[in-house]
Design a protein that fits this description.
- By secondary structure, this protein is of the alpha/beta class.
- It has one domain (8-288): TIM Barrel (Alpha-Beta Barrel).
- The chain has helices spanning 21-28, 51-64, 84-104, 121-136, 164-174, 186-191, 199-211, 247-254, 275-288; strands at residues 8-12, 33-36, 69-72, 108-111, 147-151, 180-185, 218-223, 225-226, 237-238, 263-266.
- The chain has an 8-stranded parallel barrel with strand order 1-2-3-4-5-6-7-10, surrounded by 4 helices. Strands 8-9 form a two-stranded antiparallel sheet.
- The protein is globular.
- The model has no long low-confidence stretch (mean pLDDT 95).
Amino acid sequence: MAELKKKRIGVHVGTTGGTWTAVERAVAAGANTFQIFSSSPRQWKAAAVKPEDAAKMRDLRAKHDVGPVSIHASYLINLCSQTESVRVNGVAAFRGEVERALALGAEYLVLHPGSWKGLTREEGLRLAAQSIERAIDGLDWQGKNFRILIENTASAEFSLGGKLEQVAELVECLKACAPVAVCLDTCHVHVAGYDIVSEDGYIETMKLVESTVGFDAVKVWHCNDAKAAMGSKLDRHEHIGEGSIGAEVFRRLLHDSRFDHAAFIAETPVDAPGDEARNVGVLRTLSAG
């Protein structure tokens, strides 16, 4: 999108009834940006986007000034697996993700690159880059406001992206052949062992963000509190302000001018009706105060 004038705060929403209904759900939750799955995140097969759904989404987004839109790629995709058949399936599935994102006019497609278990980190990095390049080969993304966002992970032992340096390395490998940028997740950063809770720790972690991926590359922050402790490597999301990260960190992040260009999207639990609106409301309050 063009330079965003308003703070973009949103939440992951469902698409039951058609992908375009996500805009209505986001607006009802008080959001002006949102994230969706373009298909079931736990199934390989996915239907193509209906042109009428894409048109409705564009119209509703324009009407309500909602954007950017982020799509989260399927959890099944592993583009750096040691098993060729897994990579082949992942490349086909990711190509479908890109096709649907482009058809819907989404600005961002968030990807967990996968696990390189059984390989070296360098081999995993090479396979991930090759797989992404193959997946987008021949697709018409040139000149469109679209980016594949490499997301940091919770630092499981063989998870590519568990370290900020790995995210930066993959982006560097791809930037000549793919439209790539970065998504950072507060829960993942925290449980991976980076201190964003203490004031000094936040300063040092942001120095590392700057020296690795760079501030401008961070297009989306996934705003999730954490059920688990810093360094635990357990990816368990919690409502904003109710976990081991705490509300003050999100206030600090939302007021950090180095991320004025970014969208802040919650992937918090839905334990009861209205939880999406509640977490968006907390982020908006923290942003204002």
